[in-house]
Amino acid sequence: MNGLARFGIFPKSSRRRLNAAEALDLLPLRAPHVRVTEAEGSIVLSVRRRNSRVVRALSWFFTLPENRTFQLDRIGTLVWSLCDGLTPVRAISVKLGEEFGWPTPQAQTAVLQFLSSLSERHLVGFPSADNPEPSR
Question: Does the reported pTM lie above 0.85?
């Protein structure tokens, strides 16, 4: 438990951890606020900086870029292109394994780690059948 959650300042997270089978059944969906451009065979993701109080205060002391950008390699580009909200993680892993000649467990681990990283940056979400809004 987060130390501040004990004091009621920040609530405990209501998210539960998924087991491997549940994670492989997720349907990753690209976030609508992400701008996508192609550069030299790879994809560049761009997200506009949030204009919160903290960001405005920091901008007095530091030059902050208007956008955060993420350049994807070949593997990331393939995974990103399959994040359509219809293709489960399991199928993305199979496609990645076929494309790069990886065994299934290695492909599944790579896809899950990459999607976790994208989710932490709010670039993809995982809608559920009962809630069409993607969760992060």
Answer: no
